[in-house]
Amino acid sequence: MTTVIIVIAVLIAVPLIYLATLDGNFAVRRSLEIAVDQKTVFDKIRDFRSWSDWSPWLMHEPDTTLDFSDTPDREGGWYSWDGSIVGAGKLTHEKFNGEEKIEQRIEFLRPFKSVSRVWWEFEPKGEDKTMVHWNMAGSMPFLFRFMAKKMPAYISKDYDTGLYMLRGELEADAEVPRMSFDGPVELPEQTALTLHFEGHLEAMKKAMTEGFPRLGHYVDEQGLTATGCPFTIYHKVDLKTMHFDCDMAIPVAPETTSTELEVKRFSGGRYYKTTLRGSYEFLELAWYQAYAHLQMSKIKPLHKQASREMYENDPDTVSHSNEIVTSIYIPIK
């Protein structure tokens, strides 16, 4: 019995000792130039009632319960959120330094409790331009210290998304990502003409610029009919090295044959659909937010199955990049 107790004590002690050796502190700073004057952007950010228009978190759960203090745009003003997906917490204005800086305190209550400092800096950049800096510094609760090194990467993606959405609220013609999380869907089996690619991100962008027109021209030259939107299917993705193994594809009739291009059949299944309205330059953020939404919703992705990126319209036919529509499909259980 004594031996069992010792073993249990060791099993408990070892991870606690490991956690005690970790630094739980983290810091994040993201910046974006916005073509408005300092006062305009300062007034927008200090008014918590505007945050639901551009918050990178509230877009995941638009019906989140929000409460505001009587003066949410003043020092001491606050707003709180409570949702089943985004958790619960409170953000408070602690101090305004003229129109140059806002200092805030953020309290997370769920899914775990923690407190961090948040501050904004507004740097004038000539006439009617302001460099906006969004900062956070804090520490993870003891049992979550192992997450501290990853927090800057996670928060940076959210901050980047929020800053672009904020710019879209303030600049009439700005490029802005708009995302919706549409839910589980069933995709049918598809036959497609394909071009394979394996390599790094920048090379993939070039390959797609050349590859999809080639696929389209082939369909036209052969008198074939595309049975759906062009898409990319990602078989393997290494985010650390940004290495991709994928197929560019145009769906065609099942009986299609080709001596020049490879015809492949892709199985259907259950997927979670996320829609991006905006430039392809925002696709990296959209993929991050799609996976973040699954994690917050406690939906498990099937990493061994291929994900898809479907191009719903032709970017050459829209009047603004904000009208480009791309659907992301992540396989789920």
From TrEMBL:
Residue ranges annotated for the AraC effector-binding domain, each copy included: 182-333
One matching Pfam family: GyrI-like
Source taxonomy: Bacteria, Pseudomonadati, Pseudomonadota, Gammaproteobacteria, Chromatiales
Organism the protein comes from: Candidatus Thiodiazotropha endolucinida
SUPFAM superfamilies per record: Bet v1-like (SSF55961), Probable bacterial effector-binding domain (SSF55136)
TM ranges: none
Protein name as annotated: Bacterial transcription activator, effector binding domain
Top-level taxon: Bacteria
